[in-house]
């Protein structure tokens, strides 16, 4: 199954909330790396909710976030995925994982993993902005993401054009778990990112970063800035090392390739902090939103060495 685009709705919602998240977030330690939107906005929202006794309003805001995202995905799915209608039974299929003979060489499975990971990372600050505490927000983001993607797999099982895939369901759960782990552990979050690098395929007329599998690279990035000793080095603090996987030629009649990558990239979040904010991480709403974007998307500041598996 093609991996769903609920991530697009999450990015839209995150963009709206980040613009309204407040102007300044200062820290005594300019090198302290903590959860992107967890501190001042969430604490202020919690205090206001306690004083005004607005628990029903909080529940309503949570329901609107969850219901709005699910409605967008359902509308998109009805138009793009399920327009052939539904059959009389529930069907599953074994799509495999990363084998050369699979439909997309495993890129679709990493797409499921990434979309669930990004869903948790993007929805958590949105729930915090709504007035939930940090722990409640990440839990809501985890379960909201899993429920939506599980529902998509169930609906696929009943559709005429698609079938439910156990591999997709496992990848969904793994991605959500990874997002939860990094969202709840600031030390790990300071070191690791999981990103998508998309460069449009030469033979593709459309810009489709979530469906053009042969133009995607999925990267696990290690940031030198996350290590105290390396952070003090004026050069190494900007260095990142990435390892990744991608495919080429799948979905076409040409030759198929599965590739592994090792790359060096530039830490754009640290560069932005040092150049515009005197070394302070997450000091404005714009910087916090940019930092979250840099955590999820690999921009063209990377040099790769590629090894083909076939």
What does this structure look like?
This protein is of the alpha+beta class and 310 residues long. The protein has one domain. Helix content is 49%, strand content 14%. The two termini are 23 Å apart.
Outline the fold blueprint.
Elements (H helix, E strand, L loop, with lengths): L5 H14 L20 H13 L2 H26 L26 H24 L3 H25 L7 H19 L1 H6 E7 L17 E8 L4 H4 L7 E10 L8 E10 L1 H9 L8 H12 L5 E7 L2
Antiparallel strand pairs: 1-2, 2-3, 3-4, 4-5
User: What is the spatial order of strands in the main beta sheet?
Assistant: 1-2-3-4-5
Number of domains: 1
Tally the helices: what do you get?
10
Number of strands: 5
* Cα gyration radius (Å): 20 Å
How large a portion of the residues is in β-strands, by DSSP E?
5-15%
Following the backbone from N to C, one meets helices and strands in this order, namely HHHHHHHEEHEEHHE
Structural class, judged by helices and strands?
Answer: alpha+beta
Q: How much helical structure, as a percent, in the residues?
A: 40-55%
- Indicate the mean pLDDT: 78
Poorly predicted spans: 3-53
Characterize the biggest β-sheet.
5 strands, antiparallel
Terminal Cα separation, in Å?
A: 23 Å
Shape: flat
Give a quick summary of the entry.
The protein is α+β, with helices and mostly antiparallel strands and 310 residues long. The chain has helices at 6-19, 40-52, 55-80, 107-130, 134-158, 166-184, 186-191, 228-231, 268-276, 285-296, and strands spanning 192-198, 216-223, 239-248, 257-266, 302-308.
């Amino acid at each position: 199954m093609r991996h769903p685009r609920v991530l697009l709705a999450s990015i839209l919602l995150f963009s709206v909330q980040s613009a309204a998240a407040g102007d300044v977030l200062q820290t005594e330690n300019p090198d302290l790396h903590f959860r992107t939107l967890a501190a001042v906005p969430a604490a202020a929202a919690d205090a206001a909710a306690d004083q005004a006794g607005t628990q029903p309003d909080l529940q309503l805001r949570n329901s609107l976030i969850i219901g709005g995202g699910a409605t967008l995905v359902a509308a998109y799915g009805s138009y793009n995925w399920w327009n052939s209608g539904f059959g009389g039974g529930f069907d599953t299929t074994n799509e495999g994982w990363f084998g050369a003979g699979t439909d997309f060489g495993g890129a679709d499975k990493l797409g499921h993993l990434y979309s669930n990971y990004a869903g948790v990372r993007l929805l958590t600050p949105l729930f915090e902005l709504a007035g939930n505490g940090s722990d409640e927000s990440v839990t809501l983001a985890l379960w909201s993401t899993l429920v939506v993607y599980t529902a998509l797999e169930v609906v696929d099982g009943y559709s005429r054009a698609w079938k439910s895939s156990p591999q997709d369901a496992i990848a969904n759960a793994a991605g959500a778990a990874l997002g939860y782990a990094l969202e709840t552990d600031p030390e790990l979050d300071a070191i690791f990112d999981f990103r998508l690098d998309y460069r449009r395929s030469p033979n593709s007329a459309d810009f489709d970063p979530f469906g053009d599998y042969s133009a995607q690279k999925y990267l696990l990035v290690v940031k030198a800035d996350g290590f105290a000793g390396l952070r003090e080095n004026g050069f190494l603090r900007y260095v990142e090392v990435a390892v990744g996987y991608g495919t080429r030629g799948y979905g076409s009649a040409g030759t198929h390739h599965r590739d592994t990558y090792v790359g060096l990239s530039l830490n754009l979040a640290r560069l932005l902090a040092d150049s515009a904010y005197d070394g302070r991480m997450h000091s404005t709403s714009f910087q916090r939103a940019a930092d979250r974007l840099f955590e999820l998307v690999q921009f063209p500041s990377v040099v790769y060495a590629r090894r083909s598996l076939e």
